[in-house]
Every structure is written in structure tokens, then in C-alpha cells.
Amino acid sequence: MQSSFELPLVSVIIPAYNAEAFIEITLKSVISQTYKNIEVLVVDDGSLDRTVEIVKSIAMEDKRITLLQQSNAGVAAARNQAIAHSKGEYIAPIDADDIWYPENLEKQVQCMLSSEQSVGLTYAWSAHIDEEGLLTGRYDYSRQMGKVYIPLIMTNFVGNASACLIRRSCLQEVKGYNCRFQAENAQGCEDWDIYLRIAENYEFQVVPDFLIGYRQRISSMSSNLPVMLKSYILVIADVQTRYPEIPSIIYQWSASIYYMYLSYKNREAGKHWSCLICLYKSIKLDNLSLLNWYLYKHTLINIIEWLAKPIILLIWKNNFSWQQFKRQFRHRYYRLIEITELTNKLEKKEHLLNLYERLQEQRLTQFAKKYYK
């Protein structure tokens, strides 16, 4: 590594709304990065808890942290305010409950510096963690790079809002995050939307390491799933308007993948009938889903939990308590220190990719080659 004086400034932007439970952990993961030339801008989005107090306390110890405040206007507006006050050549967003493992910024900056100017965004892989910071066994990974607009329509392979490093010039060109989602009560896909707009004119690069801890909170599992679907529909409608030449089959495949995702979210929220409806819609939109072994595992677990629900509710008073109980017995063999082992585990898994994953990747690659000719 060069000295920090020779390396570009990275502006870390953190939107925070009622984030007292995790903001300290998040900030400490940021200021503990091996890459030191950073500024950290936290935007309090009208919090009613101790978020401001906690951020101020940590900022007194580390002058790289700046607290900005605004009335509640949503995550997109908060990120835009942070960007407007930032000075870095690169922007690194992170949500107020996620964490970065120590080398995240160092590896992403090095990836950006070794790439052509046509690369506007780098991303790394994310491991899902629970409220205690323990790995759940689920993760987001992709090897998509280069011109990725078509694959990105299919699914947000970057994974989440905390996984990327973006050139400042790219954000300026696309005019920042879209506040339309908040205005139309359709929050959820703000990060996917901006990735798509960047991918129109810039290439992506990937750092194939697990460097982000993407927190999954039980308390948010029963979030408004219809709002998430509305957010997805708005993103896709915008893409269809801008690129009517893209065949409708791409949007069908995309919707199928998203309904599969919603089915999982519904099951975790205890909405078993909605889970089955989403699974049906996923299969109807893309019959290739029938080759996905996860479909059968997921359906079986959903039906078992549905049939057992009367008994479950006799013992546990609600779905939140049930989910808490399940987590005590699931994936507890994972610990944060094992994050470095996930890449090796993944490489072994990739040798055993199921037929569904191989066929989906093959047809998408073929279509993308035709589109980019």
C-alpha cells in the first residue's frame, strides 16, 4: 500500500434513522478499516432515539466523522445530503446496521485504481449476519463484471447498499439517489436503481472476497412486503421505458427471481400463504425455476411451519419469538473469525452448482453477448 497521503480520499456515507442499536458497531467497523484516508459523513434522518448522541460521542474521538442532520426524508435524501457535503474521489455507502470487515475499503480502492476509467463501481461479497453479528450461513456473491446492465436487470447481484465503492463522477452524472421511492411510498430498491443507472454507461468490477456483513434483523422481517414489490415494479418500469428494445423475456426472468426472493421474505415473516403465492408466480413466469432445488426445500419448510403454526403459537406468542428460538439452533457454528473461510467454502460449492444455476447463467450470457454486439 502507498502512504495514506498518496491514496485518494474515500467518503463514507451513512444514512441513519433510529439506529441506536447498531450505529456504534457500524461506525467502529468503518474507522477500523486498514484503509485510513477516509471521511465519514453520518446523516441523521430525524431519529427519535439516541442515534445523534452516540454518533457525537464517537465523533469526539475520531475527527474523520461528521454528523449531519435533517428532518425525516428517507434514505435516498439522506445519502444525497452526505454526497453533497463530501469531498472524496470515491463514495462508499454503508447502512447504519451493517458492518465492513477490516480490508473492505483497501481491497475495493486497489481494485478501482487498477481498473480502467470505464469502471465506475466496484463491489465485494456480503455475508449475512444476525443481530449478534453471527453469520447466518446465507450470503450474496456474484462474479459479474464488465458491462453488466442486462444481468443487473435480472437481479441486484451487488447484493445490498453497503457493498460497493463508486466514482464520485458517476454519482454526479446520474444525479444521485432517486427520492421518488420515498415520495411514492415504495422504498426498498433505491440502491438497485442507482446501480442500474450507473451500469448504463460504466463497467463494474468485483472483489471476490467476503468483506461486508449484511445484517438481517428479525424485527424487520415483517416489513411491508407490498411496498418492496411496488419499489421493484417502479425500477423495472423505468428500465422498460428507457430501453423498449430489451425483450420482455428478460423482465419475466427478473420478476421470477424477485418473486422467489419475496417468497423467502414472506416465509420468514410467517406469511405462509403469501409465500406459496409468490412461489407459484415465480414458476409461472419462468419454468426454469422448477429445476431449482432450493424451490423444493423452501416449499417443504414453508408447509411444515404452516401446518405446525397452531402448536408454535401455543408455545411462542408470535412469529418474532419463534424466529428468535430458531436462530438459537441455526448456524451457530459460524463465528466472525471464520469470515475468511467463506471464500474457500464457496469455491467448493461452485463445483456443485445445480442445473438451474448453470442453465440460467448460460442463457443470460448468451443473451448479453447478442445485446452488446
Question: What descriptive keywords fit this protein?
Answer:
373 residues, alpha/beta, Spore Coat Polysaccharide Biosynthesis Protein SpsA, Chain A, 2 domains, 9-stranded mixed beta sheet, 16 helices
Overview of the molecule:
- The chain is α/β, with parallel strands linked by helices.
- It folds into two domains: about 10-215, Spore Coat Polysaccharide Biosynthesis Protein SpsA, Chain A; about 225-335, no CATH class.
- It has 16 helices and nine strands.
- The longest helix has 21 residues, at about 250-270.
- The relative contact order is 0.11.
- The mean pLDDT is about 90.
- What's the CATH topology name of the largest domain? Spore Coat Polysaccharide Biosynthesis Protein SpsA, Chain A
How would you sum up the major sheet? 9 strands, mixed
Any idea of the CATH class of the largest domain?
A: Alpha Beta
Number of domains: 2
Helix and strand composition category:
alpha/beta
Radius of gyration, whole Å: 21 Å
Identify the quaternary structure here: single chain
Number of strands: 9
Q: Can you give the helix content as a percent range?
A: 40-55%
What's the tally of helices? 16
> In angstroms, what separates the terminal alpha carbons?
38 Å
Provide the succession of SSEs.
EHEHEHEEHEEHEHHHEHHHHHHHH
Shape: globular
**CATH homologous superfamily heading of the largest domain:** Spore Coat Polysaccharide Biosynthesis Protein SpsA, Chain A
